[in-house]
Design a protein that fits this description.
7 strands; seven-stranded parallel beta sheet; globular; alpha/beta; Rossmann fold; 16% strand; binds NADP nicotinamide-adenine-dinucleotide phosphate; 6 helices
């Protein structure tokens, strides 16, 4: 029987790639975008149910919850995220920009996961968050992205707490690093294409389904230190 996935943030980049790969594998997909009018590449993937969601908007989240009531998913993948301000030195950035970055990258994904966790299958269900190796606090890389890095570390911490609130659960929770990927965020000089990264990410979802617990791994299945 086909599996069901809910993919958050699928207009372009890695989210779009996840939808394409999962469709190749025969999954049923519901995918969300912020703007239904600028998601041509997603509309071009056959057989995808597309819903509108700005993850930061609590009203839109409630409306999505109403629209998807009764649906059960084998995979909830919270991919959406932002890089934040161009200049990430703490003496340049505004409180508003820092707030927006942490809200989108660390708070909104967890609020969304809390909203839908009851609709993720207790038979091998997976909740995956798009983290980054930069979220590892043991690796002092990329000082020019210090705030983005901190926002992904915060996401990892919030994810760990979130799993604790689920109590005795058979769900598997993944914090995934996609590699450095050629997208609008990753830039042209990145190491990987979207297809290679997203194929690897889906492999990790399949490999970890049914294991339970919280795992921080990259698209090749290598464990990343917290
Ligand atoms: N590319 C990399 O090398 C890399 C490495 C590590 C981690 N990541 C992570 O991977 C994820 C996807 O990145 P990407 O490279 O594909 O970036 P991207 O090309 O910039 O795409 C970002 C996606 O997130 C969506 N989004 C942003 N804010 C949103 C919000 N408030 N509500 C709903 N959707 C929102 C965007 O929608 P719109 O089209 O509406 O803007 C877009 O679909 C991010 O979480 C990123 O931090 C990327």
């Amino acid at each position: 029987m086909s599996k069901n996935a809910l993919i958050i943030g699928a207009s372009r980049g890695l989210g779009l790639g996840l939808v394409q790969r999962l469709r190749e594998d025969g999954w049923n997909i519901t995918a969300t975008v912020r703007n239904l009018n600028t998601a041509d590449a997603l509309h071009a993937v056959p057989g995808v149910r597309i819903e509108k969601l700005d993850m930061d908007d609590a009203g839109q989240l409630a409306a999505l919850g109403d629209a998807l009531k009764g649906q059960v998913y084998d995979l909830l993948f919270v991919n959406a995220g932002v890089k934040g301000p161009n200049d990430q030195s703490v003496d340049k950035v505004s409180p508003e920009d820092i707030g927006a970055l942490f809200y989108t990258n660390a708070v909104a994904p967890i609020r969304l996961a809390r909203h839908f966790s009851g609709q993720v299958s207790s038979q091998g269900g997976v909740i995956a968050f798009m983290s980054s190796v930069l979220g590892s606090v043991t690796m002092p890389d990329a000082p020019e992205l210090a705030l983005y890095k901190a926002s992904k570390a915060a996401l990892n911490s919030m994810t760990n707490t979130f799993l604790g609130t689920l109590g005795d659960t058979s769900l598997t929770v993944l914090s995934l690093h996609p590699g450095w990927v050629k997208t609008d965020m990753g830039g042209e000089g990145a190491d990987l294409d979207v297809e290679t990264s997203t194929r690897g990410l889906i492999d990790q979802v399949n490999a970890h389904a049914g294991k339970g617990g919280h795992h921080f791994v990259n698209y090749r299945g290598e464990t990343i230190p917290w």
